[in-house]
Design goal:
The protein is 58% helix and 12% strand. The chain has 3 domains: 151 residues, no CATH class; 65 residues; 130 residues, Roll (CBS-domain), CATH 3.10.580. The relative contact order is 0.06. The radius of gyration is 28 Å and the shape is elongated. It is of the alpha/beta class. The chain has 12 helices and 9 strands. Strand 6 and strand 7 form a beta hairpin. The structure holds zinc ion. The site of zinc ion (ZN) has 5 residues, from helix 2. Zinc ion (ZN) binds next to helix 2.
Length: 367
């Protein structure tokens, strides 16, 4: 993650702190200062926040160690002002495994809260004068913080742990894709309800609104990613690439490109040099705007869009789509891994058609 730096490495997992975290510490110290106790107040406040975030870190290590148990790499944990993020190489696909990985975070907080409660109970037995549950007591506050963390994380919405627990639970009864879509819909419903409640009750909490928005988006992304993964499973780039396409020579004019554009449904034309190596793409958008500016005799090579990336036909379609999405070019050249010659074009449109056909054939098989 950008703007974060490493503070420790525990059992192979880096612990990183995001720079914005220090803004939080500063704000907390200032608030503690203004409480009337001066520096002592600031130190108290900082001590509590540090302890609270230590609990966040332990929560993340709960996920990390559970994931390790299933052979999943866990490169780092980053502490942000809004909480911790443990990066797992992947989420386990088996529902029971996902359930364990998701639940182990909140369980750590349950364990901490229980340990504090037990310690306070023991103290009360040993010292009957001790005032249990006096307001503002450090350990009581920390216990409450851990319970709040459990409640918050168990909200059944992605990317909260509760969303993953729910998906894992649903996936035991239905397929993974449907379980994800149901869990995501519930998460979006909760986020929307909270936002609407704020609107109608006129109680505006900017942080809560931000969290609702974040949950709404994350749930949608999770569902879309799983749907795409399901649709493209087992397919390679060569199964979905455009193989019947026209190309332009290096000396083509804008007029030549227009002829090709009007002759068929292809929108973006690879330009090849005399040896057949790809130089770039003449895209429809650039072609149309250059045509009105420069006229049809203008060399097309001047409006060439260079392709920052190319694909091999044998990589998975999921990876190909991800790389296509990461560039601004509307099409990605597919090159033969040995000869480096252009063998196809990957476009979102063509992939969409391939997936549609596949879904139709699958539907036929089921009936
Ligand atoms: Zn968690």
């Amino acid at each position: 993650m950008k703007w974060s730096f490493k503070i420790a490495k525990v059992a192979g997992t880096e612990v990183r702190i995001h720079l914005t975290f220090f803004i939080l510490l500063l704000l907390v110290a200032m608030q503690g200062m203004s409480g009337g106790q001066g520096t002592a107040g600031a130190v108290d406040a900082l001590l509590f926040v540090s302890a609270a975030f230590l609990c966040v870190l332990l929560h993340e290590f709960g996920h990390v160690f559970a994931a390790r148990g299933y052979g999943i790499h866990t490169p780092d944990i980053t502490l942000l002002p809004i909480g911790g993020v443990a990066r797992l190489e992947r989420m386990p696909r088996k529902p029971s495994h996902e359930f364990v990985v998701a639940i182990c975070g909140p369980l750590v907080n349950v364990a901490i809260a229980a340990a504090i409660k037990l310690a306070l109970g023991l103290q009360m037995v040993m010292n009957p004068e001790y005032q249990f549950e006096q307001p503002g007591h450090f350990w009581e506050k920390l216990m409450l913080w851990n319970l709040i963390m459990v409640a918050f994380n168990m909200i059944p919405a992605f990317p909260m742990d509760g969303g993953r627990v729910l998906r894992a639970f649903l996936a035991m009864f239905t397929d993974y894709g449907r379980a994800t879509r149901w869990a995501a819909t519930l998460g979006q419903g909760i986020a929307l309800t909270v936002a609407l409640w704020m609107l109608f009750s006129r109680e505006f909490h900017p942080v809560l609104l931000l969290i609702s928005f974040f949950i709404f988006m994350a749930a949608g992304q999770e569902a879309a990613a799983v749907t795409q993964e399901e649709a493209t499973r087992g397919l390679r780039v060569r199964d979905a690439m455009l193989t019947d396409f026209r190309t332009l020579p290096q000396d083509a004019t804008l007029g030549d490109a227009v002829v090709l554009l009007l002759a068929g449904s292809q929108q973006d034309f690879p330009m090849l040099d005399e040896r057949g190596n790809i130089l770039g793409l003449v895209t429809r958008n650039r072609l149309v705007s250059a045509l009105s500016e420069n006229g049809p005799m203008h060399p097309a090579v001047h409006v060439l869009e260079s392709c920052p990336d190319s694909l091999s036909p044998i990589i998975s379609l999921g990876e190909g789509l991800e790389r296509l999405r990461s560039i601004t070019c509307p099409a990605m050249p597919v090159l033969d891994p040995v000869s480096r010659k252009l063998v196809g074009l990957l476009t979102a449109e063509n992939v969409g058609e391939v997936l549609m056909v596949r879904a139709a054939l699958r539907g036929r098989k089921e009936t």
